[in-house]
Amino acid sequence: MKMPTVKYQRGDMVMGRWPGSNLYYEVKVLGLDAKSQLYTVIYKDGTELELKEQDIKSAAGFQSRSRSRSRSPSRRRSRSRSPARTTRRSSSRTAAAVAAAAITESAPSSRRDAKLKDSVEVRLSPLQQTKAAENNSNNKHEKKEENNTANEVNEKSEAVAEAVPEKNQGRYNLRRRKDDGDFKSVEAKVEQLEEKEAKLAAATPPSTPLDFGGKIGAYFWLLFLPAWVLFLLLQVNLEDPSLANFPPPLPPLEAFWDVQALGFVILWILFQAVLYILPVGKLSEGMPLRSGERLKYRTNGFFAIVVSSVAVAAAMHKGFDLTYIHSHFLQLTAASFIISILLSTYLYVRSHYAAPEQLALGGSSGNVVYDFFKGHELNPRIKNFDLKFFCEMRPGLIGWCLINFAMALAEMKHQGLNAPSHSMILVNLFQLLYVVDGLWNEEAILTTMDLMHDGFGFMLAFGDLVWVPFTYTLQAYYLVSWPNPLSLPALGAIVTLKLVGFYIFRKSNSEKNAFRRNPSDTRLSHLRNIPTATGKSLLVSGWWGVVRHPNYLGDLLMALAWSLPCGFSHLLPWYYMIYFIILLVHRDSRDMSECRRKYGSAWDEYCRTVRYRIIPRVY
Length: 619
Ligand SMILES: NC(=O)C1=CN([C@@H]2O[C@H](COP(=O)(O)OP(=O)(O)OC[C@H]3O[C@@H](n4cnc5c(N)ncnc54)[C@H](OP(=O)(O)O)[C@@H]3O)[C@@H](O)[C@H]2O)C=CC1
Ligand SMILES: CC(C)CCC[C@@H](C)[C@H]1CC=C2C3=C(CC[C@@]21C)[C@@]1(C)CC[C@H](O)C(C)(C)[C@@H]1CC3
Description:
3 domains, binds the ligand CC(C)CCC[C@@H](C)[C@H]1CC=C2C3=C(CC[C@@]21C)[C@@]1(C)CC[C@H](O)C(C)(C)[C@@H]1CC3, cholesterol metabolism, binds NADPH dihydro-nicotinamide-adenine-dinucleotide phosphate, endoplasmic reticulum, ERG24_DHCR-like, membrane, steroid metabolism
């Protein structure tokens, strides 16, 4: 058996490649994972990463060639968008912290380097003038550079002029310029080499720690999640859905299968797909991918829900009885489950044909079950049809409202009412508001974790097509058989709670979305932020200065307002609230580790400034 080699020891100072680039920075080795053969290293700005051996070079060899012009990741961007320069209102303490985190650059010492420097200065002079002029203007422009595609492009062309000396001074692979005559050919070669290396680096993204209990956890969730949905549905169908009647009796297998139900689910998904591809509404840009590319998304969700409502009204007018959804709930769920399995299998298979830079960092463990569950490909698309975006925002989300509405009709039928109960109306209106708001602000989803970081696999396919429409509707389903009359004060209190939650949720999500899209937005100029080594900043005042996830706080208050109308007779309608606390606490900790990995010491600084995660002074 081949013994693993340990080339670098804990504590060694070496040069580590910055992921996705061809740049090397001084890093300290923290250890080697014997199993994955990945070295954990820490950059001088505090960022910890796992690197492959081939992405590490000995510092000695490097310095002899490069005269140790090593730069921290933050310095790498410093010419056009150093974190310190991008901060408009960040506290001097934070700016200083980042500045301190940057590795100091040693001045060229040899004659060769001095000569090199001279030529650099000659070449840079026009650029320096531009820079000076730019510096004299306000730094609004600089902030814009962070996230704006156009500016990314500007930066690149700027970088071409700037990068020449840098390349020759050996950020990565030092080459001496013989004279100015062959300068251009060297430049072209270096560029080619860098392009090749950047592609290679992107192709081997650093692995991130496994979530959800790792490989064993993935097996568990694959079995548990469908079983849990089944349990909820069987339980809510019981005459007395109390936990004392656990476990509910299992119906025969044939009871789950109904061709017509499968037909309706397929029809619904196809109908939503047609609405999605119609050239109506805005084409929004997603956040930059690792490759630098920005995908375009058709954000016409509001249009889709309006047309869907009209179509449902027309079907009802033609005599379609919507209470079919209530009476065939199990079969509709089973049909959606089958589709989600087929979709996940397709996603997993096609991920093997995807280019490496299209894979999600978190779903590339190499373990079939884990990657199938977590999602291997980040943005699977068929031409311009984005499968993840579509599934998350359309069939399940709009289906959720359709099912709730069907439950209101079923309640009237079962309870012999002329109108739905107050509780049913509240649940319907609250959740409708949540969905319509999500669709109205559809663009905001492009800056959420699912769209930016998570691969599309079973977890999201099942979550979008089964979990959301068939478990988020449980409160309405419950009310069909278990009415809960509400007093006027209770009604008023619940509505107030919902509105407060909604306000926090919407304001905080919009604030972050606006900041990520355009950090120099004048409406956000009063907000303080912390610069990070990646060039992005973190909001440290406003909603994101109150707690680290104000949007979760608002969402949880709304969840409470959805359960309260169902009363306290059973635990079942409180399922969403309990699940949601677990989901958001786990999501928060996933996000914390991801941000810690991305932003290093800047993230620690943010956490020291904003101490609570979701509930001020509590958690
Ligand atoms: N109803 C439901 O079932 C669910 C609803 N949700 C809701 O969806 C919404 C999106 O949630 P989710 O995707 O989990 O997370 P967020 O929208 O909170 O996104 C987290 C990301 O925001 C960025 N960020 C974090 N802190 C800051 C800061 N201080 N300043 C600027 N950017 C920051 C980071 O990304 P980066 O720095 O890379 O931009 C981070 O990874 C939430 O409102 C949530 O409540 C979520 C899950 C389920
Ligand atoms: C099956 C698992 C246990 C959990 C799967 C989680 C998914 C169901 C959720 C992950 C993030 C989601 C979001 C929404 C719905 C639930 C899922 C898919 C969201 C679309 C709901 C509407 C909101 O307005 C939103 C902010 C757009 C939500 C974004 C996240």
